[in-house]
C-alpha cells in the first residue's frame, strides 16, 4: 500500500484501480490445456463487462466500440451485441467459433475503453466453456487475474470444481489467490 492509498483510506476516499490488461492473453495458451486435459470446450461466446458511465461519454465510446467491432468482425466473422444486465452494467457479448478471435476482440475493447479514459469502468472479461454444464473463466481487470466460476442451478456454485480447476491451471493462468475475490456473476448474459 502506497502513501496515497494509505492517505485515501484514512480520509475515507479511495481510487478505483485502473484496468490491468497485461495478463489477458494468458487464456489463449491455456485453452489448449483446458480442452485437451480437462475436457472443457470453448463455447464460442465471451463477454466484457463495464460499469455505466456519463451518458455523453458513453455514447461516444459505445459508437467507437461498435465501429471497431464492425470493422474487425468483417474479417473474423465475430457477431456481437451490447446489452445491459439487471444491475445496469454494460456487456459486450461476442460470438465466434474461433477462440483467438474472441480473445483478440476482448483485448481490443478493453484497450479502447482504457484509451478513452474508462479503464476504471472495466470490470471483467468472461469466457464460457462447456463440460457437464457451463464453466466460466473470469478475468478481473482490477486484479489482473483469472478465476473459475462454475454455477450449478440458480445461485449455487460448485466450489469443489472451482478449487480443482484452480489447482490444475495455476501454472498456466494467473489465478486470483484471494478466493474472496472470486465473485459469482449470476446475471451475465452468456
UniProtKB/TrEMBL annotation:
Protein name per UniProt: Uncharacterized protein
